[in-house]
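Everyone, carefully examine this protein record:
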Amino acid sequence: MDEMNEMVLNGLREGQHGTPMPQNTVFVWVLRGNATNLQRQPKSITTLHCDMQLTALVNKFWELEELRPRKYYTPEELTCEQHFDDTTKRANDGRYIVRLPLKKSVPIGESRSTAVRALLRMEKRYAADKHLYQEYCKFMEELVDLGQMELAGAVTDDT
């Protein structure tokens, strides 16, 4: 199938004989036809195209994406906003660095026995798959090397 037929829409405006004619397409209005029969050659050609439908769609997009300012913040949200303002920095490579907004005192509850049971299940699984165990150890060493984790004392099953 001819691609040109897919692009052309209804809307051909005829002018004087031998002059280009505006044709509506799925993209924009285009000039088509013979321009060599003009009595004198133009010194310059200036065109301006403004697609009002596209402009309206882009404006609508930005209106929908715009965040509405909040009128009321909880004390916790205000603390978080202040933390963001105080700790946001720009690195030399252009990335932003923001510290996590950790709460000062959060009661964790009793989770040690659950964690110990999960660790023992994991160790049993690693005993059956040596490659998985090696990858796990390498990952844990990387966390220690990066300072994201530190070694703890011996773990016992006190459940």
